[in-house]
Backbone:
């Protein structure tokens, strides 16, 4: 029966937007809503950034500035491995006395995997170990920035026009010739067919409807429209006859790693800074509480908050909490809408089962008194500390080759230990127990003839 | 009031710009000069070797929804590293994108990731925007098809669209056929094996094969190309094929080497320019679109050709295209219809596969109007649909919710881990 502990055998039903069935190990339990949550019905958020090679945490503002790349680590442009900095000694003339030479350290980047070095692309050796390597700039940056400024000016104009239109509607005085209807029509069609009504989803039109000739602003940013060329450079003649040196030609993947340049020749492949990774935190969509929040430190794998379902919900009738828990098993009714997968009828014990609390010291305490629960030997097979084994009868319904699947509902009581402290006027009332019901599916394996 | 507006627009975070192509997806932030990442539009399911293409129009909604959800999850948390809830989204799309795909994509963004707003931007219009001109004939040579759409004074001339399914996908298919027929593979145990034996064993081989044309193949110029076509179809009977380029030994993985025959290298791309029975080729699309445009727009359009798309980056493509257009315009079909004979090509400030993305990034940086032109989450929740150019029954936003007035909802909670 150890096979019942396999992850896919026991599935719990999660009531979210979609009904999802998944093993308990992948589920979270929101103790404010008292419901199971799966990865699909929580919202994921970026928690912190860190570099995968130097494991340095980076604050979000800095990450945004550096475009989510580490300042110190580089990736090999050929094989995407992390580059290491190597040092050599080169003779260099002393600044005071040109005739004497002394050994100076020069640093270069090298890949331990594919033997690429920064000297292959012509990058000069640097005299500092880190911080000397720069990525090349995009040559079109200036033009693009100018374009953005120009369009921003047009956008401002459009906004002013739109606001002015709205204000114009509210003016109290109106020429008597205009009736309400006419105003409406004029607004719709009147102010020029060039300023069309902007509907989202309609093809984006007419930023050009506002030309810069309506000179209200003092400062106008004029932009030169791009010039089209008559001729395009043809392929070089030796392209037809020259044998290709395949290592010299970059592969598609290498090219696409550098979207700004996409060089065709391997001698232009420059290393890029290493991309960061993130730690994710999860949040319940309904009550907006955090379900899982990792530690800030990249080297730590612990969590500040971790409401994993295994710690809160009953797991194959092992009681994870420290209180005594009462469990009732109820078979699924006929026509239960959630009962779609079962291929067998199951008879579950009708009596309530009692599970002892989890006691961490019990393993070590050999003289522990045996708890006396009166167990019906027909129902309970064995009991050990907080575990219980019980019998169920399964009657397969179909003569199929598939697995036998049974489903039933587990109803158990749950005490929310993290509930907010109530005011003491109510007296020392113990925390109330909530009864939770989970729909469980067990896959028992194929029928042996 | 201006002070408040300044604060509102200054505090808004930069929008996310995504160009979801059939082969590659370009993603990044508005206002930047290039996409942060160009990644294949595929997801990898655990346990399966073959990756699944995300952009498929024929699968059922459930599967498409889960594929898109996984892909966009990876985009946000592996590549862009930002919270989806904070930033508006600009999606560059083709105008021929099926409504079903669009609606599923919108649903993923709004329901699963709860983005504040979404804007669908047509790729051809965005290409014009990246140049600073108002009119141009834009040709997008992509993976599934080549689509031509003229844009005049920032308005796409929709009736004049032209398309052919000649793109990266067709080239791969042709190349696969030729390789299987003619080429041999050497491995350490055997030499001269034919290719199908290896494809049968290892489906990943196809993936590697699809990368071959980029490194080894090219497009010949007009004269040479016409001679190759003649030799193939043997029209003259005595046509001789020009000397082929030398063979290439292409390593497939550590053990196997594929011998690519020389003639394949320059002839596989000819299919883009071979005219089929309807005399359509990639070059004729441009002229057909011009003929459909109003007469007064034709000169402006023909002198402002813009070529975007990954397939346009093949070596020799642009030169050949211009030469073919100039050749075709002398044919009787076009000579009488088109008075304009001058054709000029633009070079946008980005590589052709990122030009549409760049236009979207420029537009996304205009925070003043991005809000008013996007479909906000509230509008979507109330109407349940996204407006489409082909569907006239969507209610205008003014009657539902005034999207332009308020700034987008920033994170609702008092505490925030991100500035």
Residues:
């Amino acid at each position: 029966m150890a096979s019942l502990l396999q992850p896919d055998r026991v599935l719990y039903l999660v009531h979210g937007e979609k009904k999802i069935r998944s093993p308990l190990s992948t589920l979270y339990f929101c103790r404010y809503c008292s419901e199971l949550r799966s990865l699909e019905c929580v919202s994921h958020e970026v928690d912190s950034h860190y570099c995968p090679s130097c494991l340095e945490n980076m604050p979000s503002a800095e990450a945004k500035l550096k475009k989510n790349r580490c300042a110190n680590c580089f990736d090999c442009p050929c094989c995407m491995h992390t580059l290491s900095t190597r040092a050599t000694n080169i003779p260099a003339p002393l600044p005071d006395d040109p005739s004497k030479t002394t050994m100076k350290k020069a640093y270069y980047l090298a890949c331990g995997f594919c033997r690429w070095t920064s000297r292959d692309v012509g990058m000069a050796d640097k005299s500092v170990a880190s911080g000397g390597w720069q990525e090349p700039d995009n040559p079109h940056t200036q033009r693009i920035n100018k374009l953005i400024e120009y369009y921003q000016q047009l956008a401002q104009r459009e906004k002013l026009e739109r606001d002015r239109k709205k204000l114009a509607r509210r003016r109290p005085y109106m020429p008597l010739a205009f009736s309400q209807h006419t105003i409406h029509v004029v607004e719709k069609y009147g102010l020029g067919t060039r300023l069309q009504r902007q509907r989202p989803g309609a093809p984006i039109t007419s930023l050009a409807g506002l030309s810069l000739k309506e000179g209200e602003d003092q400062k106008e940013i004029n932009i030169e429209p791009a010039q089209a060329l008559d001729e395009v450079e043809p392929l070089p003649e030796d392209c037809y006859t020259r044998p290709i040196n395949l290592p010299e030609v970059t592969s598609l993947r290498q090219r696409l790693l550098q979207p700004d340049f996409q060089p065709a020749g391997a001698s232009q492949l420059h290393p890029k800074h290493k991309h960061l990774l993130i730690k994710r935190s999860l949040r319940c969509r309904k009550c907006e509480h955090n379900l899982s929040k990792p530690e800030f430190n990249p080297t730590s794998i612990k969590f500040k908050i971790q409401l994993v379902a295994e710690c809160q919900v009953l797991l194959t009738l092992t009681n994870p909490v420290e209180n005594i828990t009462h469990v009732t098993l109820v078979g699924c009714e006929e026509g239960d809408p959630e009962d779609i997968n079962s291929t067998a009828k199951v008879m579950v014990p009708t009596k309530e089962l009692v599970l002892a609390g989890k006691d961490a010291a019990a393993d070590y305490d050999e003289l522990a008194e045996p708890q006396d629960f009166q167990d019906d030997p027909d129902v309970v097979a064995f009991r050990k500390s907080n575990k219980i084994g019980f019998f169920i009868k399964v009657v397969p319904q179909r003569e199929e080759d598939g697995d036998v699947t049974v489903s039933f509902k587990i109803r158990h009581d749950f005490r929310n230990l993290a509930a907010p402290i109530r005011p003491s006027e109510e007296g020392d009332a113990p925390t109330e127990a909530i009864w939770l019901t989970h729909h469980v599916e067990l896959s028992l394996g194929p029928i042996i003839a | 009031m201006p002070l408040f507006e300044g604060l509102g627009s200054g505090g808004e975070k930069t929008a996310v710009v995504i160009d979801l192509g059939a082969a590659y997806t370009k993603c990044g932030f508005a206002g930047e000069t290039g996409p942060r990442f160009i990644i294949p539009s595929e997801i990898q399911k655990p346990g399966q070797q073959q990756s699944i293409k995300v952009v498929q129009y024929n699968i059922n909604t459930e599967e498409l929804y889960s594929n898109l959800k996984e892909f966009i999850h990876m985009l946000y948390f592996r590549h862009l590293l930002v919270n989806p809830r904070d930033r508006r989204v600009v999606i560059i799309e083709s105008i021929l994108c099926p409504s079903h795909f669009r609606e599923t994509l919108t649903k993923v963004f709004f329901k699963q990731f709860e983005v504040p707003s979404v804007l669908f931007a047509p790729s051809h219009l965005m290409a014009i925007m990246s140049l600073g001109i108002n009119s141009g004939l834009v040709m997008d040579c992509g993976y599934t098809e080549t689509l031509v759409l003229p844009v005049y004074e920032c308005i796409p001339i929709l009736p004049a669209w032209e398309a052919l399914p000649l793109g990266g996908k067709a080239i791969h298919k042709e190349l696969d056929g030729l390789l299987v027929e003619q080429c041999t593979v050497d491995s350490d145990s055997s030499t001269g094996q034919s290719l199908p034996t290896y494809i049968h064993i290892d489906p990943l081989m196809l993936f590697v094969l699809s990368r071959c044309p980029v490194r080894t193949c090219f497009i010949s110029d007009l004269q040479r190309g016409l001679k190759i076509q003649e030799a193939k179809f043997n029209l003259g009977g005595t046509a001789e094929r020009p000397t082929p380029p030398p063979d290439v030994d292409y390593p497939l993985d550590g053990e196997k080497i594929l011998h690519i025959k020389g003639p394949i290298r320059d002839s596989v791309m000819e299919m883009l320019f071979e005219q089929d029975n309807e005399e359509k080729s990639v070059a004729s699309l441009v002229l057909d679109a011009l003929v459909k445009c109003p007469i007064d727009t034709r000169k402006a359009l023909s002198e402002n050709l813009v070529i975007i798309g990954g397939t346009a980056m093949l070596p020799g493509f642009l030169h050949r295209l211009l030469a073919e257009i100039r050749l075709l315009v002398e044919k009787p079909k076009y000579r009488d219809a088109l008075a304009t004979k001058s054709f000029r090509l633009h070079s946008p400030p980005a590589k052709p596969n990122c030009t549409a993305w760049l236009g979207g990034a420029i537009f996304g940086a205009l925070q003043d109007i991005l809000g008013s032109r996007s479909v906000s989450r509230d509008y979507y929740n109330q109407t349940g649909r996204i407006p489409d150019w082909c569907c006239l029954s969507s209610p205008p936003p003014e009657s539902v919710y005034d999207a332009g007035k308020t700034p987008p909802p920033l994170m609702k909670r008092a505490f925030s881990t991100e500035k």
Observations:
- Residues 190-206, 208-218, 419-429 of chain A have pLDDT under 50 and may be disordered.
- The longest helix of chain A spans residues 141-169.
- Residues 279 and 390 of chain A are 41 Å apart (CA to CA).
- Chain A touches chain B through 79 residues (CB under 8 Å).
